[in-house]
Specification:
With 75 residues, the chain is mainly beta. It has a domain of 37 residues. It has a three-stranded antiparallel beta sheet with strand order 1-2-3, with no helix packed on it.
Amino acid sequence: MTAEPLAEVKFDCEVLNIQAHEDCVRLSLPGNQTVDVPWVVAADGAGSAIRRSLDVETDGPGDMGHFLNVMFRAN
């Protein structure tokens, strides 16, 4: 994995609210924290709460079903 100085990936980070401004995106996080960032990648799936909160529409066939991934190790 290579480092990207202009990006930081956060896993298991809860975004309580998101507001798009002209010069930044403001994220409200737990603990009364706010973070201003230049952009956000909403990698929270097809039913993205972030996408819906910003009124970003999708294009395509819509709900194509429910899927389940299972990963396990076995001898």
